[in-house]
Amino acid sequence: MEFETLRYRVDDGILTLSLNRPDRLNAFTDTMARELVEAMDHAEQDDSIRVILLTGEGRAFCAGADLEKGADTFNQPDGGQEPDWNALRDTGGKVTLRFYNSRKPLIGVINGPAVGVGATMMLPMDIRIAAEDAKIGFVFCRRGIVTDGAASWLLPKVVGLPQSLEWVLSGRVFPAREGLEAGLIRSLHPAGELMDEARKLAREIADNTSAVSVAICRQMLWHMSGETHPMAAHEAETRALYWTGRSEDAKEGVMSFVEKRPARFTLSPATDLPPGYPWWEEPEFR
To answer: Where are the beta strands (DSSP E) in the chain?
Structure first.
């Protein structure tokens, strides 16, 4: 696929999605937001794609919102009318919620500075690795605005409330090693080895797991982090186990183990998810 602000490359089951405005340090725009959502929509319908890597071209991951408009960068004219809150949505949030709802696993490959929306967009990634010299900053309070990208929900889930408060309220930019120590980053790597490590992680998933199992487990782990009692997880897992246990992938998973051979899973998250998915949209699971 061709995009104005992204590079979209598929190689042996792995989609590398690169923010592609290196001359602007991959600064975030409305066009980039729209294209990221379009790219995710397209990838979810492509059964050949098992894992998605998100990274940046050039020396930055994403330097935050493009400040080309100067003082009016964050000003959204309303024409003197009360905003339509159903229509007016934070563009960073549109992207992070699309990542959050993905049926395919995402790996954030933080190759350089990740600031503002560049930091929040990594939060719904399932695994985040970074270059040793990368820097991260939730700088919103230093710009006179507030967090975007549903970060007020996502960040405490990833690193806990005390660390989230310190990073957000100070707005300081910190080294990736601090993110590693807090659990935001899984591991640090020399810049020249970063993508190789990302592909190694992606291959571990792509070569050994059922795409349907991954899709369901990913959503269960993310959604259940917000539930107040484990009964919600028990109910969802019971239903999912009932359906996946009867599937061809379950039969293949067992027999490949018994026969000591690689599994050949065939089910697709685009067409073969069990009845009741997405369960969190059903009234009894809200």
So the answer is: 6-11, 14-19, 51-56, 106-110, 114-115, 127-131, 135-137, 173-175, 187-189
